[in-house]
């Protein structure tokens, strides 16, 4: 996996070959961070279902104040920990455990930007969206990636959406009526 922008631009990071683990493609990350703006200074981010950590490390590379990586696999979490050390990733916090349990924990705090990229065909994106409103700071944005279109419904509003090959992705926010 290669970081495509920010302070760690062009750094390559290894990650374990584990079933269902696939980093967000470079082209998709480039579009996402063009939507978000290149500077994430001061933002508190959450990378649910962190996997390779591509989205979280990309956010840190672009100045995010903190990124919480949530990963259930101990082997993948160990690789994330090693990669954070390789980068000297201050502001990176790793949580080894279930993403939905993490969202239900009041101690998790609130986030300005959340990345939701669970294993495809798991149904976890929709489940995460149901839990997320309580974890969002005012004006927060949520990125969702899947292998098919997801219609999130209220209270969500789709701000941007695109497709690259078999990857569907969208940027959501809480709608005005919520």
Describe what this molecule looks like in 3D.
The chain has a domain at 45-146 and 161-178: Vaccinia Virus protein VP39 (Rossmann fold), CATH 3.40.50. It contains 5 helices and 7 strands, in the order H-E-H-E-H-E-H-E-H-E-E-E. The chain has helices at residues 26-36, 54-61, 74-87, 99-104, 124-131, and strands spanning 44-48, 66-71, 92-96, 111-116, 136-146, 156-164, 167-174. A 7-stranded mixed β-sheet has the order 3-2-1-4-5-7-6, sandwiched between helices. Strand 6 and strand 7 (167-174) form a beta hairpin. The radius of gyration is 15 Å and the shape is globular.
Q: Would you state the CATH class of the domain at 45-146 and 161-178?
A: Alpha Beta
Low-confidence segments, ≥5 residues, pLDDT <50?
none
* Total number of beta strands: 7
Q: What is the level-2 CATH architecture name of the domain at 45-146 and 161-178?
A: 3-Layer(aba) Sandwich
Based on CA atoms alone, the radius of gyration comes out at: 15 Å
What class, by secondary structure content? Answer: alpha/beta
What percent strand? 25-35%
Q: Would you give the CATH topology of the domain at 45-146 and 161-178?
A: Rossmann fold
- CA distance, first residue to last residue: 37 Å
Largest sheet: 7 strands, mixed
Major sheet: arrangement of strands: 3-2-1-4-5-7-6
| Helix count, DSSP H or I runs of 4 or more residues | 5
Q: H/E element string? A: HEHEHEHEHEEE
Fraction of residues in helix: 25-40%
């Amino acid at each position: 996996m290669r970081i495509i922008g920010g302070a760690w631009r062009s750094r390559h990071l290894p990650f374990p070959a584990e079933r269902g683990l696939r980093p967000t493609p470079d082209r998709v990350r480039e579009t996402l961070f063009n939507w978000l703006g290149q500077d994430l200074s001061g933002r508190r981010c959450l990378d649910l279902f962190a996997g390779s950590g591509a989205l979280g490390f990309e956010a840190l590379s672009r100045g995010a104040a903190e990124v919480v990586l949530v990963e259930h696999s101990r082997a993948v979490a160990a690789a994330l920990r090693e990669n954070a050390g390789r980068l000297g990733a201050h502001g990176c916090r790793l949580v080894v455990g279930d993403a939905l349990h993490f969202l239900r924990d009041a101690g998790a705090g609130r986030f300005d930007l959340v990345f939701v990229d669970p294993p495809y065909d798991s149904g976890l994106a929709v489940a995460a969206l149901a839990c997320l409103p309580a974890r969002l700071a005012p004006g927060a944005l949520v990125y969702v990636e899947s292998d098919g279109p997801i219609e999130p419904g209220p209270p969500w509003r789709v701000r941007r959406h695109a497709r690259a090959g078999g990857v569907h992705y969208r940027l959501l926010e809480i709608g005005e009526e919520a």
